Amino acid sequence: MKEFLLGLRLLLGSGRGNRARFLLMVAGSAVGVCCLAVVLAIPGVLAAQDARKAAREPDCSNGLGECTAEQGAGFALTRVDPYGADPLTRIFVARGSKPIAPPPGLQALPSPGEVVLSPRLHEELRHDPGLAKMLPGREAGIISASGLAHPDELYAYVGVRRDEIQGGGHLTAFGGSHTDFPTVDSSTLDILRFTLSGIVLLPLAVYLSVCARLSAAARARRLAALRLLGLSRRGLQRVNAAETVAAALLGTVLGLGGYWVVNQLASRIGLPGFDWYPSDGSLPSTAVLVCLLGCPALAWFVSRFGAKRAADNPLAVRRSAEVKPPALWGLVPLIPGLGIVAGYCVLGAAGHAPSDTKLSSILMPVAVVLVGAGLVLTLPALSRALARKVAATTRSLTLGLAMRRNEVEPSGTLRVATGLVLLVYAASLTQGVLIELDQVSKNTAPVQAYSIELSELTEDKQRAVGEVPGVRTHMVETTSWSDSDAPGPFPAIQAVIATCRQLQGMASVLKGCVEGRPARLIVPGDTYDDASRPGARFPFRLVDDDGRHKTLTVQVPQQTVHYQDEAVTHTVSSGTVLIPPSLLPEGFRPDYGALTLLSDSTPHVVRSVLEGIAAVDPTLEVETEGVDIAALRQIGVIKTLLGVGMVLGLVIGVAAYLVAATDRAMERKAQVTALSLLGARRRTLRAVQVAQVVLPLAVGLMLAVVTGKAAESSYLVTGGGSVFWDGGGVPLLLASAVGAVVVAALGALPLIGRRIDPELIRRD
Asked: Could you give the CA distance from residue 145 to residue 147 in angstroms, rounded to a whole number?
């Protein structure tokens, strides 16, 4: 305890310069802890949203789970549709004779003809009157915050009668142990954790270490003096820890306070594609303990390492003896990390992408961390080797002075350049994650296809849906019927029921179609259905609105039609039989199959078509081909959080550079003063300062680009997607590296002051 108090007394009584360094350490620690708190809060925000989702879900909506009919139970039906880039969730509720407790956010369940809306949906309804077709009824209330996953959610409860719901499930209660629609599913959340650990946590650990090592040379000389006066090794470590731990602890408290302010502001403003309630962003007690204990513990560890040389050889420190060259310990993590990365790249190039995702999910994060740590630890050795080579060959006074200084003090490069090197390395990894996310199925075609099960449609509804404004054309897809009770396998064929005019609207290529004549469809590049042989006969089961059934036997014709559609996926395969609608008996339609619609894919047209279908029957389940709105919502959330991670990485990288460069300039005032008194011009000194930073930084950034691209490619190989190599991202990475060099060079220019104080060359 005495040594700790001695360290605090030395801090308070060692002049304004040391107090300024202490405040710089506090400010740096506060920024780092604030960034750490943001990362630690993200899982809590997602968990809070999923908990509210689970608490409001009907127990048997859409027949999910073990649902048994209970006398007097109500019914519920869930529909999730795209509304622009966001999912619109509607819960159709029919009350039973037994009372049911309302879900969170509602005072009571809506009666038939009533709707209860989320605040954003209430606003959208005012600006988009057509939305009322999807929300039939009188607005009876607003869902409170306890019933919404996030403030911007599109959610509604619609009260209906039981006879208005087809399908659904018996409703006995709301709430469950988990949600069927998580904000981010577990596999995608693993991607997020993996990326944030690379772009935030790894640079953050280095940054906090840099902050704890500020004024290292001055403190080492002071500690060496105390050691020569008889202070023990352990006592010396406690004295050194007093300043770093105190700065880290104070910075932690300020950082947590800064995070509270950031959370309050950001949650109210919102981020593109992601918003949350302020209470969701509150740090759990475990995260607070991690910050309060972890950051001072890291500072303690760094201070012990920093005091080692002063404790072992204090006389050499006081006399500024030659520093021992840095060891090549950085190769220990770098070589195995690059080995894993190179192995996956070779497998991808050979066409043998790994199928064991469990092993890859362990090896890839390990490889990323090993390569990142290896980059950091090899920078001093690389800086010294480069400095010796350049200094031995150059005839430039500027380069000679700069490189000799880097040769004597290679660890200075580690503190100044590490943040920017890791930033470029992390940018490449993030780019790989974004490429993988972009491979998720989404509609990029000029048309949008919709599919509705025929079992949900009557003849009148089918006709009305086909006439919805915005629908270009429609057709019915079905399959031949076979008796499931009869023994033996029965072949089946696909069929479409449409006129040539309707089929023309679906197709980009249609040749040989004659109105009213059956034909076989031939799709270029598609495998032909062997069961669809000319002359073969297949029965098709038909039904009318009264439930009566008929069987239509169709003989596979000789005639062919060349067909190719514009939909996101091939809705028609080669060998499908085209059946003209005129061959069906009046009032009958296929017993099972789907009605396929086609429209333009512009957002306002898609919204108009969905609203028109809802005007026919708001409970119809419409599948938008090629668009998984829940997955796209998750991708939007992940991209936003990755953007937050990149911003944090940028803040950490720039802050690490500014803090380390400023501290290094303050420590070198004595050397700069001596060179000035010897006649060196200010222009020369500034050029030396820039060269000291730029040359080793440029080498480190090139390594970061190369290793980052290799790590990105290996990640894409293990991701299961179709893209392994991304050459398009190289110019962006190189531009980022050049930008980092320019920033470092400009930041080094003002660090040579105008005032020359000769007192500095003899001040202890």
From this structure: 5
Buried-exposed string 15-39: b where 16+ CB fall within 10 A, e elsewhere: eeebeebbebbbbbbbbbbbbbbbb
Cα(299)–Cα(245) distance, integer angstroms: 6
Residues 6 or more apart in contact with residue 385 via CB below 8 angstroms: none
* List of residues 6+ apart from 293 with CB closer than 8 A: none
Rg (CA), the chain: 34
3-state percent breakdown (helix, strand, coil) of the chain, nearest 5: 55, 15, 30
What's the sign of the alpha-carbon dihedral 315, 319, 320, 322? negative
Render the burial of 557-590: b for 16+ CB within 10 Å, e for the rest: beebbbbbbbbbeebbebbbbbbbeeebeeebbb
Residue 630: the pLDDT is 73
Task: Tell me how far the alpha carbon of residue 623 is from its chain's centroid.
Answer: 26
- How are strands ordered across the β-sheet holding 549-555? 549-555, 537-543, 589-590
| 5 CB-side CA count, 13 A | 2
Q: What is the pLDDT of residues 160-219, one digit of tens each?
A: 988 887 777 788 888 877 887 888 887 777 777 777 776 777 777 777 777 766 665 666
Q: Which two tokens stand for residue 340?
A: 């894993």
List the one residue out of 516, 492, 514 whose CA is nearest residue 562.
Answer: 514
Distance, CA of 538 to CA of 383 (rounded, Å): 78
H or E stretch at 360: helix 357-393
Contact between 420 and 694 under an 8 Å Cβ cutoff? The reply is no
Residue 317 tokens read as 């420190």
- Tokens 């495998």 belong to residue: 527
Give the relative orientation of helices 682-718 and 730-748 as an angle to the nearest 10 degrees: 150
In sequence order, what DSSP letters do the residues of 170-205 get, joined into one string?
EE--B--SS-SS-SS-HHHHHHHHHHHIIIIIHHHH
The residue count of the chain comes to 764
Q: Give the three-class secondary structure for 478.
A: strand
- Alpha-carbon distance of 138 to 90, in angstroms, equals 15
Token pair, residue 178, equals 């988990």
Q: At what angle do helices 357-393 and 397-408 cross, to 10 degrees?
A: 130
Report which residue type is found at 241.
Answer: A
CB atoms within 10 A of CB 100: 20
Pairing of strands 114-117, 138-142: parallel
| Residue 545 DSSP SS3 | coil
Specify burial of residue 287 (Cβ count, 10 A radius: 0-12, 13-18, 19+).
buried
318: left (phi over 0), alpha (psi -120 to 50) or beta: alpha
> Which H/E stretch holds residue 555?
strand 549-555
Could you tell me how many helices (H) and strands (E) the chain has, helices first? 21, 18
Burial class (CB in 10 A: 0-12, 13-18, 19+), 653: buried
The Cα 501–Cα 736 span in angstroms is: 54
7: tokens are 């360290």
pLDDT < 70 stretches in the chain: 1-18, 61-72, 198, 212-227, 229-230, 233, 235-237, 240, 303-327, 330, 355-357, 410-417, 435-445, 483-490, 566-571, 661-672, 676-679, 719-729, 747-764
Exposure string over 467-499, b if 16+ CB within 10 A, otherwise e: ebebbbbbbbbbbbbeeeeeeeeeeebbbbbbb
169 pairs with which residues across the strands?
Answer: 76
